[in-house]
Design goal:
The chain folds into 3 domains: 1-78 and 86-100, Ribonuclease Inhibitor (Leucine-rich repeat, LRR (right-handed beta-alpha superhelix), Alpha-Beta Horseshoe); 110-271, Alpha-Beta Horseshoe (Leucine-rich repeat, LRR (right-handed beta-alpha superhelix)), CATH 3.80.10.10; 281-375, Leucine-rich repeat, LRR (right-handed beta-alpha superhelix) (Alpha-Beta Horseshoe). It is built from 14 helices and 15 strands. By secondary structure, it is an alpha/beta fold. It has a 15-stranded parallel sheet with strand order 1-2-3-4-5-6-7-8-9-10-11-12-13-14-15, covered by helices on one side.
C-alpha cells in the first residue's frame, strides 16, 4: 500500500498500520517535521519513504535516525535537502539501515568530506541503487568511493553534476565495485577528452547497459577514445547530449564496432547528423533522439538515407527544436517527412518547436494513423 499525503494529515489522522510506502515530498517539513516523524509509532511497516525537497538539514537527519521504522527501510529518498557533510557524518553512523537498497542523496550540498564518511559506513553494503548527483564531491570524493569496500552489490550509480573532472575519471576507473553496475550516469562533470581516455582504461565495467556522458565537452577526440572502450559492447542506452562532437566526431562514431546492441541513442545538441547513414550498427535502435541539432530540411534528407531504419526496429523519433518548419518553403519540411518510409514503422514522433503548422501535423497524422505526434 502506497500513500502520498501532507504532513499535517499524517500527524493528525489514523493511518493504516499496513502502510509500506509513504511520500512526504514537497511538504516544507524542515528539521522540526522530522522530529515529529521520529515520534510516529504507526509507521512500523514502512519500507519506502520519500522526503525530497523538505529543507531537511543535519539536525533533521539526527531526528530521522531515531525513527523506529528504519530497521525495515529498503528505499530512502532525501533528494534536494540541505544535509551537507555534517548530516552525512550523522547518517553514516546509523546501524539501523541494514536493509537499505536504494538511497537518493542528490542535491544536498555534499562534498568530499561527506563522501568520506559514507565510504566508511556499513549502511552501504546492501545498496543496489545510489544517487549522489548534483553535489560537489569532486575528484577527491571519487577517490574515497574507489576505496569503499561496501558497494559490491551496487547496480545503479548516478554521479552526474559533481565536478569530477578528468582526474576523477582516473580514480573511478579503479573502482572494483563497478563490475556489477549496469547503469552509470556521469553527465555534467567536465570530463573532457582526457577523462574519456582515462575511463577507456576501465576493465570492470563489463556489465554496463545504460551510460550517460552528456554535457562533458568530450569532442571528437573524446569520441575516438570512447570508440575504443570494450565495455560498451553491452550498452543498449547511450546519451551523448551536448558534447561538441562535431562532424568529424560523428564520423568516428560511425566507425565504432561496439554499438551493435544500442536500442536508445540520444545525440541531441551535436553536429554531424549527415554521417548517420554510415552508422549501420543503429539498425537495432528503437528510440533515436536528435533534438536541438538545427538539422533543418537537410537533416530530413540525411535521415531518409538511413535505409537500416526502415528495415530495423525504430519506433520512436525525437526531432524537436530543429527548424524543420522554418527552412524552405511553407510545408516543405512536412512534405519531406511524409515521403520517409521510416514513418510507417514509427509509433511516436516529436516535432515540437519546429514552427510546423497544426494543419500540417493533422496531415501527417492522417497519413500515418499509427503515429502519435507531439507538436
Amino acid at each position: 500500500m502506497t500513500i502520498s499525503i501532507s504532513f499535517r494529515e499524517l500527524i493528525f489522522s489514523k493511518i493504516d498500520t499496513d502502510l509500506t510506502s509513504l511520500d512526504l515530498s514537497n511538504n516544507n517539513l524542515g528539521n522540526k517535521g522530522l522530529e515529529y516523524l521520529s515520534k510516529c509509532d504507526f509507521l512500523k511497516n514502512i519500507n519506502t519513504i520519500i522526503l525530497s525537497n523538505n529543507q531537511i538539514g543535519k539536525e533533521g537527519i539526527e531526528f530521522l535516525l531515531k525513527c523506529s521504522f528504519l530497521k525495515n527501510l529498503m528505499s530512502l529518498d532525501l533528494c534536494n535537502n540541505t544535509i551537507g557533510n555534517k548530516g552525512l557524518e550523522y547518517f553514516s553512523k546509523c546501524d539501523s539501515l541494514k536493509n537499505l537498497k536504494t538511497l537518493d542523496l542528490s542535491y544536498n550540498n555534499i562534498g568530499k568530506e561527506g563522501v568520506e564518511y559514507l565510504a566508511n559506513s556499513e549502511l552501504l553494503k546492501n545498496l543496489t541503487s545510489f544517487d549522489l548527483s548534483r553535489n560537489k564531491i569532486g575528484k577527491e570524493g571519487i577517490e574515497y568511493l574507489s576505496s569503499c569496500e561496501y558497494l559490491k552489490n551496487l547496480s545503479i550509480l548516478d554521479l552526474s553534476n559533481n565536478g569530477i573532472g578528468k582526474e576523477g575519471l582516473e580514480n573511478l576507473a579503479k573502482c572494483d565495485f563497478l563490475k556489477n553496475v549496469f547503469s552509470l550516469n556521469l553527465s555534467g562533470n567536465k570530463i573532457g577528452k582526457e577523462g574519456v581516455e582515462n575511463l577507456a582504461k576501465c576493465v570492470v565495467l563489463k556489465n554496463l547497459t545504460s551510460f550517460d556522458l552528456s554535457h562533458n565537452q568530450i569532442g571528437k577526440e573524446g569520441l575516438d577514445h570512447l570508440a575504443n572502450c570494450a565495455f560498451l559492447k553491452n550498452v543498449s542506452n547511450l546519451s551523448l547530449i551536448n558534447n561538441e562532437i562535431g562532424k568529424e566526431g560523428m564520423l568516428s562514431f560511425a566507425k565504432c564496432d561496439f554499438f551493435e546492441n544500442l536500442s536508445i541513442l540520444n545525440i541531441s545538441r551535436n553536429e554531424g547528423i549527415e554521417h548517420l547513414p554510415k552508422c549501420e550498427f543503429l539498425k537495432n535502435l528503437t528510440s533515436l533522439i536528435i533534438s536541438r541539432n538545427q538539422i533543418g530540411l537537410d537533416g530530413i534528407d540525411y535521415l531518409s538515407q538511413c535505409n537500416f531504419f526502415t528495415t530495423g526496429n525504430l519506433t520512436s523519433l525525437d526531432l524537436s527544436y530543429n527548424n524543420i518548419g522554418k527552412d524552405g518553403e511553407a510545408g516543405e519540411g512536412v512534405e519531406k517527412l511524409a515521403k520517409m518510409d521510416l514513418l510507417k514503422k514509427l509509433t511516436t514522433l516529436d516535432l515540437s518547436h519546429n514552427q510546423i503548422e497544426n494543419e500540417e501535423i493533422e496531415y501527417l497524422s492522417k497519413l500515418f494513423k499509427q503515429l502519435k505526434i507531439f507538436s
